[in-house]
Amino acid sequence: MTITAEALKEILLQQQKQFEAAQLRLVETLTQQLQIQPPNSAPDTISVDSIANSITEFHYDPDAGLTFDSWFRRYEDVFQVELKHKDYAWRVRLLLRKLGTTEHTRYSNFILPKNTRDLSFEKTVQQLSMIFGERSSLFNFRYQCMKL
Predict the structure, then answer these.
(1) The DUF7083 domain covers which part of the protein (predicted)?
(2) Which residue among 38, 69, 83, 144 is least packed, with the fewest CB closer than 10 Å?
């Protein structure tokens, strides 16, 4: 059985039409699926995780100038701008997660009998600034005044 050129051409055209129809159905199906699927929140989660990982842990050392105010000044924009879509409780938890072990224990003991989750973000920052702020002896304070 030999196939003539015309018959072969006819078979190829028929296959081409079938492939085009199948491709068109595939494109329509994919288009519908893209319109139905809700926006994926995974990139946001990854972004928030990477932002949280970029914040270093805070360790209080007033002699070296490592106070909470200087540390928070560095990351204030992260908490106020980049994480503004997160609620205050989430930001408080992240802030407290970034405290060193001794700093977290000291803060928790300072606010007793309240829990860490009971304070607002601003109040938490204010308390941490007060606890881990600059310390100066009375002698040092007077000495600095005399130098003026």
Answers:
(1) 48-134
(2) 38
Say which residue the tokens 């990139």 belong to: 43
Report whether the peptide linkage leading into residue 39 is cis, meaning its omega lies within 30 degrees of zero. Answer: no
Distance CA 67, CA 71 (A): 6
Cα torsion 88, 94, 100, 103 to 10°: value is: 10
Which residues are paired to 61 by β-bridges?
66
What DSSP designation does 148 have?
Answer: -
Residue ranges per domain, the chain?
1-37, 42-131
| CB contact burial 21-50 (16+ within 10 A = b; e otherwise) | eeeeeeeeeeeeeeeeeeeeeeeeeeebee
Q: Specify the pTM.
A: 0.60
| C-beta separation of 103 from 60 below 8 A | yes
Residues of the chain with pLDDT under 70: 37-46
Q: What is the DSSP string of 47-79?
A: HHHHHHHHSPPB--BGGGTB-HHHHHHHHHHII
